[in-house]
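Researcher: Here's a chain I'd like modeled. Treat it as a single chain, no partners, no ligands.
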Amino acid sequence: MTIARLAAIPMVAALLISATVPVTAQDHSAPPRHGLAMHGDLKYGPDFSHLDYANPDAPVGGLLTMEASGTFDSFNPFIIRGTPAAGIGLIYDTLLESTSDEAFSEYARLAESVEMPEDRSWVAFNLNPSAKWHDGTPVTAEDVTWTFNTLVEKGAPFYAAYYGDVETVEAVTAQRVLFKFKDGMVNQELPLILGQLIILPKHWWADRDFSAPLTDLPLGSGPYKATAFEFGRSVVYERVSDYWGADVPVMRGRYNWGTVRYEYFRDRDVATEAFKAGAFDLRAENSSKRWATAYDFPAKDAGMVIQEALPHDRGSGMQGFAMNIRRPIFADRAVRHAISLAFDFEWTNKALLYDAYTRTESYFANTELAATGLPSAAELTLLEPLRDQLPPEVFTEEFHTAKTDGSGNARANLREGLRILRDAGWSLQDGVMKNADGLALDFEILLGNATSERFVLPFAKNLERLGAKVSVRTVDPVQYQNRVRDFDFDMTIGLFPQSLSPGNEQMDFWHSTRAVQPGSRNIIGISDPAIDALVRHVVTAQDRDALITATRALDRALLWGFYVVPHFHSRSDRIIYWNRFGRPDEKPRYEIGFSDTWWVDPEKDAAVRKWRRSSN
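Model: Modeled as a single isolated chain. Structure tokens:
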């Protein structure tokens, strides 16, 4: 899976990576390839000139202004300290480049070719001899080894888990780097996730503390370089005129903006008005209310602003009310089950969300990876050895969220929730639900912005009907990030994005080793040997069928654990933008394509400018 978020702390000593055994290129060689596919064949052959959804003749230049939320105080996105600048990935290259029209394939980018044996026990990357940093210094294999070891030792805890099956890494020559994997580890995804590695300049970092927030503009090798900033307000990236990788096939026709500027807004509604005034160019809208009500204004009526929903084929992942099971009140599955019955999606969707959403019933919704029906024979092969550790419903029932009639009165579901609590030993005492030890069902729902309050507050009201004492607290983005990072919350809205090819990132989401490491994505605190075993089956799946089987089995265990109260999802990307862009005829199957394949259309741009002048 593509790295979704960079997170944080030094890894445990057991996972330290060192090149203890000298190797030679002759010991590990295989026919060079132009790319890697997780399963099956690559879509693009060795002689492809550009991606189907990119226009190699796209005009280059112009200013793109984008919205960013909250604030920033660092240019180091690889650690947990500080809040990194939006768009910082634009300045870097990865060894290989993922595509947006295949489930999981990567092609040569910083690496000119890649070598890998059939058993995937190692992978070697041969760097493009033309690759250089923005200061003109060549990119070398030593940069790759330094980057890898530094991320694992000093970066986010995510990296230690993600690359945990790497045994050694060595710069064999100035342009060849070899990764060997631990004996007995069958990790099909590992060569590809190493291809996603962002490479950093060792020489530039030599006199800097990698573990601290960075206030200098960093050095990169990618299509843009950071040129100006004002902490908390804006950051600017300029296209590198002599970018070494402009003609690499997977990069041709992409990153066409002359300048990219991010403007920061503390409040999403304030940013909406700023967009309508022309302060930035495009927004991906995540609020159904704003989508339905906020964009009837003259520029849209005049055709200067376009509002459209673009269907996509990617999975929706899981969003929901995540319970921190490190808290005693949420340690009981029965309590979590009862709480899940208090969310009235049908009423919420109709009354608050303009019927724009579908209820989520899988951590891998909208994909073939989602569990349906009862477990298949192949799934049972994985689940049966864990039967005594898993909820019995995993084997006997298909998971579905509780439904209501949409009237706003969820009486039947709440009645069932009360029954579950009473059967688990809870009772109303002085108007508050308590267990036999006197522990009260009293907790806080922590939010990072006010947008979600409109459907969180009705949920809290229903919880009160269950005898819970619930408060809803909205804090600023920095405080929210710090509290979630430190697991300092009772319940919050959790996001668990998923790709079409789940793999090592599942360790960071669910594995017990991640439950105790602040900054990991196991915010729920799951520490369960059965879940650990199912995660390992996902990571070690040998082919697509095995991956589907393992993922469905994991999905069932997570769903019946009632760790989250599932929210909802949309099958379209909702975007609204000023009509000053051109775009390729073909849209990538799994993404919008906006940020890396669109361009400024001079004629459309001129028309927008003229309209703005005449309307002022």
